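We were asked to recover a plausible sequence for a given structure. The inputs and outputs are reproduced exactly as logged, with field labels preserved.

PROBLEM: sequence recovery
POSITIONS: 284
GIVEN STRUCTURE:
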């Protein structure tokens, strides 16, 4: 017999006739405020369960089913959710993790499509190859997270803290990154990974100081008023991008084709290696 207790009162919230919670059927169970720290919940079915305010620190949740689960304010620091299912890929069935703590959590290849992660703490978490299409990450903390190969297509990452993140081979097509902080983020590729793809991304007023953007695809991207000081844009693909009023002081534009880039009122006076076509007007 396994008893799941309240983390505050010690009251028994649920009993299950088994020796372990691994593979347990906990569908739609109310476990608000439960203490599940260090629990073995691998392959458990927690779909549509109310897990708000629960403590899952250091828990094992690999391959768990958390589709539609309510995890608002839950603590999942250091938890392992590798390949966990937190969505079935349809709107309204993504897990709710608003303001949840996921510090150093493992979410490799997890399904988080349409999940609500706004204001969640994902700092230092590993979301490599995770699926976050259409997810809400508004004001989430992703500082120094591992995001290689992560899918952020159509996701809301506005006002996110993405400082020092590794986004190589990430897909951010049409994502909302308005006001996001990407200082010193790595979006370029390497021997093992391709550069990030940001076609049609909205980076209005985003901060990209010192970001590595070599060979990155930024076609049709909106970089209005973005801060690109000292960023490395060598050989980036900027066709159709808008850099109006962007600050590109110290940014390296080696090998960048600027003919089809909107550049009006951008500060190119201190940009490096920018081959600016003679017909471009209203530059600073």
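RECOVERED SEQUENCE:
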């Amino acid at each position: 017999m396994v008893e799941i207790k309240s983390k505050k009162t010690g009251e028994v919230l649920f009993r299950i006739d088994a020796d372990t919670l691994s593979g347990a059927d906990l569908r739609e169970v109310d476990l608000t405020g439960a203490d599940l720290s260090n629990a073995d919940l691998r392959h458990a079915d927690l779909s549509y369960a109310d897990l708000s305010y629960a403590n899952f620190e250091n828990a094992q949740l690999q391959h768990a089913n958390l589709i539609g689960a309510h995890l608002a304010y839950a603590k999942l620091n250091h938890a392992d959710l590798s390949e966990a299912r937190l969505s079935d890929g349809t709107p309204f069935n993504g897990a709710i993790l608003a303001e949840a703590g996921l510090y150093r959590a493992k979410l490799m290849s997890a399904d988080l499509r349409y999940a609500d992660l706004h204001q969640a703490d994902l700092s230092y978490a590993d979301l490599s190859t995770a699926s976050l299409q259409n997810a809400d990450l508004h004001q989430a903390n992703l500082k120094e997270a591992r995001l290689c190969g992560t899918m952020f297509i159509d996701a809301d990452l506005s006002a996110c803290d993405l400082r020092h993140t590794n986004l190589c081979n990430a897909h951010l097509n049409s994502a909302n990154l308005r006001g996001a902080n990407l200082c010193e983020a790595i979006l370029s590729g390497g021997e093992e990974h391709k550069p990030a793809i940001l076609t049609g991304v909205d980076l209005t007023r985003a901060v990209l100081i010192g970001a590595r953007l070599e060979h990155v695809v930024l076609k049709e991207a909106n970089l209005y008023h973005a801060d690109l000081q000292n960023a490395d844009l060598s050989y980036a693909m900027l066709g159709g991008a808008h850099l109006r009023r962007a600050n590109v002081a110290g940014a390296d534009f080696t090998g960048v084709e600027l003919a089809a880039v909107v550049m009006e009122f951008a500060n190119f006076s201190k940009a490096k290696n920018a081959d600016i076509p003679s017909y471009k007007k209203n530059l600073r």
